[in-house]
Design brief:
It contains 8 helices and 26 strands. With about 375 residues, it is α+β, with helices and mostly antiparallel strands. It has 3 domains: about 120 residues, Roll (DNA Polymerase III, Chain A, domain 2); about 120 residues, DNA Polymerase III, Chain A, domain 2 (Roll), CATH 3.10.150; about 110 residues, Proliferating Cell Nuclear Antigen, CATH 3.70.10. The longest helix is centred in the first third of the chain and has 11 residues. The radius of gyration is 25 Å and the shape is elongated.
Length: about 375
């Protein structure tokens, strides 16, 4: 079989497909990309053992007598090679032992074979045998799904002592993440059922490029589908242990006051104040509200004033916060002006665009 594809198309497809590869040499299927050609569509399949990612791109069949074929090769080798080719198009040929690419030169990539001397396949039957139309079905967009990672990721637990907090809780109200300290409720993306999405699945939302996305859930199986990308995954256990109710209650509380400030001014101030934090300060800074916002190091060696763009109630309020927790949440925001609700012992709440981020106060000694 001989196939022709535009080089730029192939580069983009492989740069996305490789994100789904676990690259764990102990599990050979996580190191390969399955390349399938059918009806002038090239599909690239990778897995990390939790998720299966399929990227599709159009190509031209130069041998009409053959309509479909499948190969498996080392994903990193293929991706790196294609990224360095500069010709306008690439010709793909194959035999029983190698996949050959013709571009600036000729490149023979060994096929990865199973014990029966057949190209090694990533098993999709668990998902492809399911009728996903009988379960939960939600229409959404790539932007809404990618915003889950952008805004909620800083509040995901990175260690496994509480496994349910390593996932993204989603229900009819939105997406909630909580790492035991900071929390984020994102009301932009919703599902008609409550499940925990694995972090590795949410990371793959970055491969979605089209506006129209459909999310299907049947039992514990998930399918995220668009015209050129399909992702299969499974929900996490522990959804009943996730403190969604308590976190929603905090968000619904009325904070006594709120102010609007320039985001970059605050981030730059935090960068300068951080130079005066000592190891004994536990990463804490003092944040005060009056007729302006004042941030200062705990040892009083530095302080900066941030003028309000607007402020309600002019409430005087002072507390300690973790500077990195505050900065991590601020850096997810894309708008220049941000609103901070304050005056509650719960902490500070950054809020706008139906996204609420809670940064709790630290205990002063």
């Amino acid at each position: 079989m001989k196939i022709e594809i535009k080089t730029e198309k192939l580069k983009q497809a492989l740069s996305r497909a490789i994100k789904g590869a676990g690259k764990n040499v102990a599990f050979p299927k996580t190191t390969i990309v399955g390349v399938e050609f059918n009806d002038n569509i090239l599909s690239f399949t990778t897995t990390d053992r939790t998720n299966i990612l399929i990227i599709q791109e159009s190509a031209i069949n130069l041998t009409p007598e053959q309509t479909n074929c499948y190969w498996s090769v080392h994903c990193e080798l293929l991706s790196k090679l294609v990224s360095k080719i500069t010709t306008d198009t690439i010709i793909i040929e194959s035999n029983n032992e190698e996949l050959t690419l013709l571009g600036n030169g000729k490149y023979n990539i060994p096929l990865i074979l199973d014990s029966n001397a057949q190209p090694l396949k990533i098993d999709k039957d668990t998902f492809t045998n399911i009728n996903f139309n009988i379960g939960t079905c939600v229409k959404t967009s790539s932007k809404e799904l990618q915003n889950i990672s952008i805004f909620n990721k800083p509040s995901v637990l990175k260690t496994n002592e509480l496994p349910q907090l390593t996932g993204y809780y989603i229900d009819k109200d939105g997406v909630i993440t909580y790492n035991g300290v900071t929390a984020c409720i994102n009301e932009q993306a919703k599902l008609d059922t409550n499940v925990l999405l694995p972090a590795t699945l949410v990371e793959l939302f970055s491969t979605l490029t089209l506006d129209e996305i459909t999310v299907y859930i049947v039992g514990n199986l998930i399918k995220v589908d668009s015209e050129d990308v399909t992702i299969y995954s499974s929900t996490m256990e522990g959804v009943d242990k996730f403190p969604s109710g308590a976190l929603k209650n905090i968000i619904s509380e009325v904070f006594p006051a709120e102010c609007t400030i320039d985001k970059d001014s605050l981030i730059k101030a935090l960068d300068r104040i951080s130079l005066f934090i000592s190891p004994m300060d536990d990463n804490s800074i003092q944040i005060s509200f009056s007729d302006k916002l004042v941030v200062s190091s705990k040892n009083k060696k530095s302080n900066e004033n941030i003028e309000f763009i607007s402020n309600t109630n002019n409430l005087e309020f002072t507390q300690l916060v973790d500077i990195q927790d505050l900065k991590n949440q601020l850096q997810t925001r894309t708008t220049q002006e941000i609103t901070i609700a304050y005056g509650s012992e719960r902490g500070l709440m950054i809020k706008s665009d139906n996204i609420y981020q809670l940064i709790p106060f630290m205990v002063s000694e």
